[in-house]
Write a structure and sequence with these properties.
Helix content: 55-70%
Order of helices and strands: HHHHHHHHEEHEE
Distance between the termini: 17 Å
Oligomer: single chain
Shape: elongated
Strand content: 5-15%
Length: 321
């Protein structure tokens, strides 16, 4: 197993563990919030749902380099688009509903209505929620440390998103403790604080992590062709494809036509092109197809089958997920 595969496997295991811990916390918050009529728990469960969505996106980014022929950068296919739309619709409907309920409870508290704050926090729910929050924060800190050592962009983005909202979970535990002590008015008030932050959290995920699955062309083919043809021995560069986002992760596929005298140096030429592309555009993964320029070849004849240079540390096999 090479180093890149090892790093990808460790990242995958960390993200999968994080996903299971997030789903468990989501179940505790959703079920506990419904059973205890706690708007705070229900509002925080929306944040946890976004954390789970963020982890799923990172898992897709980590596992997709294993797909053949560079189709690791799928783009916004039907699954990604449908999942994002469903999540946005669910968060919008649930968030607005919880906001109206919270506002009604606050208004009822000011006007002296009967049972304005029906919340009743069960001590078992409080203890279990606190334990799960501590576990998730500790796991997020550990994953953040591993992300730096593994140089995994997907893991970095996921842990950065999670830790950015970790303080909300810690404050939520304190609010639940105060509600358990009798300060029930904090339940709708804190829910009103949490709900606007749900939209901010979702926007951060869509803006930072969803681009990891972008389909549009990342680098202009003319720019790649210009760089490739500057390398000695390359006569033409054709059928150029690039996907991803420059500065984060890009996959490039190119077909090179080499002068017959340089065919034996195809691997070295591929390494040179990959190095120049990395120097200019940052992290990327390059796949190179090579064929020899035939003397006296007719312009309309079919060229021979190209040779394929598989990704390697020299020609683009570095990890970027």
């Amino acid at each position: 197993m090479n180093e890149g595969e090892y790093q990808r496997r460790i990242s995958y295991r960390l993200l999968l563990t994080t996903l299971w811990a997030t789903l468990l916390l989501l179940a505790v918050q959703a079920i506990g919030g419904w059973a205890n009529q706690s708007l705070t728990l229900l509002a925080e469960s929306l944040h946890t749902l976004i954390d789970g969505f963020s982890t799923v996106l990172s898992l897709v980014a980590v596992t997709s380099p294993q797909r053949q022929m560079g189709r690791e950068v799928w783009g916004h296919g039907r699954a990604e688009v449908a999942g994002t739309l469903i999540l946005c619709a669910f968060l919008g409907f649930t968030g607005v509903s919880l906001m109206f309920i919270a506002l009604r409870q606050v208004f009822s508290g000011f006007t002296g209505g009967a049972i304005p704050f029906p919340v009743a926090i069960d001590p078992a729910v409080l203890r279990f929620t606190a334990a799960m929050v501590i576990l998730n924060v500790a796991l997020g800190i550990y994953a953040s440390y591993q992300a730096r050592s593994l140089s995994s962009q997907a893991l970095k983005l996921n842990t950065r998103h999670f830790l950015a909202d970790a303080w909300l979970s810690i404050v939520m535990v304190g609010v639940l403790l105060a509600i358990w002590q009798g300060q029930r008015w904090l339940d709708p008030v804190f829910a009103l604080v949490l709900l606007p932050l749900v939209g901010r959290s979702l926007w951060r995920v869509l803006n930072e992590q969803l681009p990891m699955l972008l389909r549009p062309t990342a680098i202009a083919p003319e720019a790649i062709s210009h760089i490739a043809t500057q390398v000695e021995g390359v006569t033409r560069c054709t059928r150029i494809r690039s996907r991803g986002m420059v500065g984060r992760q890009v996959w490039v596929e190119i077909h090179l036509v080499l002068h017959p005298e340089f065919v034996e140096s195809a691997e070295t030429i591929g390494e040179q092109i990959d190095a120049q592309l990395r120097q200019r555009y940052g992290p990327l993964r390059t796949q190179v197809w090579v064929e020899s320029a035939r003397p006296y070849q007719d312009a309309f004849s079919e060229p021979g089958m190209p040779n394929y240079l598989p990704p390697s540390p020299g020609n683009g096999g570095g990890d970027w997920a």
